[in-house]
Design brief:
alpha+beta; Alpha-Beta Plaits; 6 strands; about 50% helix; about 20% strand; globular
Length: about 220
C-alpha cells in the first residue's frame, strides 16, 4: 500500500461487475472476483494491488497506464464467462489520505470514475455493446508526467474490446493461454480440441492480433 504523503502521478484502476445485482449467489460472485483480483495482481506490477472496495467495485494503482490496461485484459479473461466487468483507468495525481484504511483521493481517481461512467453509458447503445474499457487523463495532467494521449489509447481500446466481445469462451481461453506463453498443443489438450483447431481459432478469431495488441498497449507509459 502506498504511504501517505505528497501526491504522485499514478494510473488509477477502477472496475465494477456488469449486472451484479442480478447475480443468484452474490457471495460466490465476491469470492470468484476476489480470487481473480489476487491472481492478476500477482502477475502484473502494481503499486497497490487490485482489491474489492465495496459491493461489486474494485480498485488498484499502477505506475503506468499500460500496466493497468494489461491487468484489465487479464482480469476480463480470467473471469470469463462467469463474470463480466468494465474498467476505467485514470492518469493523474493520487494522494494517500489513510494507508491503513486504503483511503486515496485525487484527479487520477476522478478521471478513472469518468472513464467507467462513460463505458456504462455507451455499452447500452446500439453498436457499442462490447465496450468495456476507457482511459481518461486528469485535467490538468501532472506536471512531472503528462501521461499518454487519451485519443490514441482509447482508439486502441475500442478495437480491442470489440474484438474480445466477438470471441466465444474457447477463444478467450486460448487468448489467455497465449498471453501466458502456453503452447497450442497444451491449449488443445485443455479444451479437448486438435492442435489444428486451436491454430484455426488463433488465426480466424484474431487471437494473435489481440495478444499482440494487449502486449503493445502494455508498453504505454
Amino acid at each position: 500500500m502506498s504511504s501517505p504523503g505528497a501526491p504522485q502521478p499514478l494510473a488509477a484502476f477502477l472496475g465494477d461487475v456488469v449486472g451484479s445485482r442480478s447475480a443468484d449467489d452474490r457471495q460466490a460472485l465476491h469470492d470468484t472476483l476476489s480470487s481473480a483480483l489476487a491472481a492478476v495482481s500477482a502477475e502484473v506490477e502494481t503499486v497497490d494491488d487490485i482489491q474489492v472496495t465495496a459491493g461489486d467495485e474494485f480498485q488498484g494503482t499502477f505506475a503506468t497506464v499500460g500496466e493497468a490496461l494489461y491487468a484489465a485484459v487479464l482480469l476480463r479473461l480470467r473471469l470469463s464467462p462467469t463474470i463480466d466487468i468494465r474498467v476505467g483507468v485514470g492518469w493523474g495525481s493520487v494522494t494517500v489520505l489513510d494507508a491503513v484504511n486504503a483511503t486515496q483521493d485525487g484527479p487520477a481517481w476522478w478521471a478513472a470514475r469518468a472513464g467507467i461512467e462513460w463505458v456504462e453509458k455507451h455499452q447500452s447503445m446500439a453498436g457499442w455493446q462490447n465496450v468495456r474499457t476507457a482511459y481518461r487523463r486528469a485535467d490538468p495532467p501532472p506536471e512531472s508526467n503528462a501521461g499518454p494521449d487519451p485519443a490514441a489509447v482509447n482508439a486502441a481500446l475500442l478495437c480491442q474490446d470489440h474484438l474480445m466481445g466477438l470471441m466465444d469462451e474457447r477463444s478467450r481461453h486460448i487468448m489467455e493461454g497465449l498471453m501466458h506463453g502456453q503452447t497450442q498443443t497444451r491449449l488443445a489438450e485443455e479444451l479437448g480440441l486438435t492442435r489444428q483447431a486451436v491454430n484455426q481459432r488463433r488465426k480466424h478469431d484474431g487471437l494473435a492480433i489481440a495478444v499482440a495488441a494487449a502486449e503493445s498497449l502494455r508498453t504505454t507509459t
